[in-house]
Amino acid sequence: MTDVLALDRPRARAWTLGRLLQNALWDLEDGRPLDDDQLEIARRLRDRTA
């Protein structure tokens, strides 16, 4: 999708990881468990080479 939209792939990846982190922090702050789907997305992005 980054190619089709002419986006910088490493920047889009970093932005997405930042959003996932923010969502996780909000969940923890509100006493909710971490979202398994978001954790899996973060793992896949983290393990991918830039």
TrEMBL record:
Domain of life: Bacteria
Keywords linked to the UniProt accession: Kinase, Transferase
Gene Ontology terms, MF aspect: kinase activity
Name of this chain's protein: Putative Streptomycin 6-kinase
Lineage: Bacteria, Bacillati, Actinomycetota, Actinomycetes, Kitasatosporales
